[in-house]
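Researcher: I'd like a structural prediction for the single chain below. Treat it as a standalone chain; there are no partners to consider.
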Amino acid sequence: MMIVVSSGDKKTVFLLFLPSPGMAFILERKDIMKVRKRDGKLQQFNCEKIYDAICAALNSANVTDKNHIAWEIASDIKQELILNKTKIIEIETLQDLVEAKLMTSGLTDVARRYIRYRYDRERIRHSKSKLMIDISEKLNATNVENQNANLDEKSFSGRMNEANRVVMKDYALYNCMSEMARNNHLNNEIYIHDLDSYAVGMHNCLSIPFDRLLKTGFTTRQCDVRPPKSVNTAMQLVAVIMQLQSLQQFGGVSATHLDWTMVPFVRYSFYKHFVNGLKYIEEGTLDFNKEEARDVSINDERYKKYPKVYRYAYDMTEKETYQAAEGMYHNLNTLQSRSGQQLPFSSINYGTCTLEEGRMVTKALLEVSIEGLGSLRKTPIFPCGIFQCMKGVNRKPDEPNYDLFKLALKSTSLRLYPNYVNVDWSNNAGYDINDPKTYLSTMGCRTSNGFDINGLGQTKDGRGNICPVTIIMPTLAMQAKKDVEKFMELLDKKIHEAKDMLLERFEWIASQPASSANFMYQNNTMEGYIPEEGIRSALKHGTIVIGQLGLAETLQLLIGKDHTEPEGMELAKRIEQLFKDRCDQFKQQYKLNFGVYYTPAENLCYTARNKFVEKYGVIKNVSDKEFFTNSMHVPVYKEMTPFEKIDIESQLTGYSNAGCITYVELESTSKHNIEALEALVNYAMDKDIPYFAINIPNDTCLECGFTDEFNDNCPMCGSQEIQQLRRVTGYLTGNYKTAFNKGKIEETDMRVKHNKIY
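Model: Treating it as a single chain, here is the predicted structure.
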């Protein structure tokens, strides 16, 4: 049978089929009506699906003649939609219509069963959704990815944390950002870091102003903390403050000049021991009190009038300083305050203070590092020690802290820490030699604060990175199809989009109330906070950075050569200049501290490569490994001397003002050649490398404590309980074969030794 329905000048033809006597349903023309599914996709309206669902409900209620009833209701719904000229109907609305029809037909029991049917279907759909599958995998630790080497994904809190991250990431993608930002992230073009922290508006990292916090005291949710009156208490409070601050953010915390910071507290301790000495060794008096002691050098002549007491007080202070440093190290390696038994990502910078008190602190920090922790004298994972190299202070034998530089090299040879930061780096020109807060310092991973356009200048304290994104350059290179100019256009476009994404997230973070991070804003650990202006007043002093991944692979895709060859280096410099020019432009345009960041990519090097392979397949010298090369680094498998590696990377480090690191890989035998390590560090500093690290294999037998480089068995006792410590981004981690993701494990295994130390 044919039915003609007229609407204005248009006529629509429907065919009426009779599947059984007296029953009919209408088949629509294919362009007439569609159903919007729960995922937003449109599908053709199909009466048969309504019929099947109603039949299932009728059947469960043992209703006879169910075919007739089902067709009748389905046809009624169809006709009603046609008469209402419905073109698109939501699936939930359609199902509501079915329920209503069942109820008005007197089939209340059937309606209840249909509702149950809807619920069961929804539950099945939900359980099979990608989100729920991901949550289930994390809760049950069936998909341990080791995204963060500092997090135990198998622990109770780790499983909870990872499941929460899945939900928070999904929420952030679809509720907190623009479609442009979301598409860039999902398309493997611009990666949004720490997506799980996006929704709540957390910032990244902070260099804590310890000078002020320890001088004035601070408040917590439960109590007020008085200023310390000894070096021991001061160092323990450093660990406490690092822990408290780390809970206000998702990244690392650092002390920018811990040796200078501790000077007044060493003086307090010295005064205490000196007064005790006067009481029990010699009789005498001092013409100043304890409150004044913080400003009195331990080399003051008023102390030296009592030589026996002086020697006693000096020895006791030196002992206390060592114990204070040891206590801080133990605290920072046991304060598992974050989910997944994470420790605070902590870093301490030191080495430039030439005062006796500061030298005592640096010496103690290095000696504790060398000694190791626990009964097996294991290498401390945290804090990341960073020795500040400075001309005229510690670089040459006739300089006052040269002996501490030598001690630092010994520690590096045995413990991988400290790393070395170049106070005289050209990009930190203009620092105040009388103000250590302006000296170049860094986080362990590589993050550093450049010049603040909003008033703090070269000051590093109380500032941090607010939020980063990373451009996945190999994806853009594939889109450019070996056309360099097209790639540069695409890159420029993505840098602008990265800027927009950062501004979007910055404003979202800035919109949060100060109560979200009470410790931080009550104590002004982030400098510049003005309550009546909101937290943006503090955030504006931090950096917002555009990172990059896979320069080496990008060059291979574009010209078939990486930056270890002249043609590759020429193009690399052009790429980096574009990053720098745009960030400089954005900094002036928006009055925010945009910067170029050479991304650590602990997890991203692996996940970005996998997404690349899904789309483009395995390409020789590009995606034929489980990882992309970090930022502008020389590929880890390239054979060369350490000096050659420094020469290459030093040509690119100057383009970054928000953080970069250069490291070299040496044989374990290098730990016996301190002179060679000294030559390497000095060479890197002279080449204007801002941040330098030396990787020497650090394998420890967990049975007997023997430390060297070995494979599966301890050569001393034969045990297979081995900790193989390696650097992951700048920080160290536990056994890399269990703590790293697959990409990082392969990258670590492929790292060649940069031998031939001349």
